[in-house]
Design brief:
138 residues; mainly alpha; single chain
Amino acid sequence: MGTLFLSQTAVGLLGNVSLLSFYILTSFTTHTQRPVDLILTQLALANSLVLFPRGISRTLDAFGFKYFLGEVECQVSFYTHRVAQGVSLCSTCFLSGFQAITLSLGNSRWAELKSSLETTATHTVLLLVSSFVSFYSL
């Protein structure tokens, strides 16, 4: 069972970190950045933060290591997992809405949102992250 957890965590982290490094490299090398790149970067980071605390702790637990985290580290790990899970879910929903508006026809009622969508994407991403950080810190 430990090998299964280890392989799932390793493949998931490797995939998300490679996507994250690709989008970071793209943002440094290109002059224009699409708003979808910011959403996908946030999604890859959130998925990595979901996998990291929970995947490593479950893998070590499956191999027989018990109580390897102290109380503070366990609380930080749990908080990181909860915030990243919420951000990942909302980023996926935001990406679906973003793609639906982007792919809509020019004569539909979503056409007026297309022009303002690129400027508000950054603000929406920051609002999502800050709202989850403040919500779960209560």
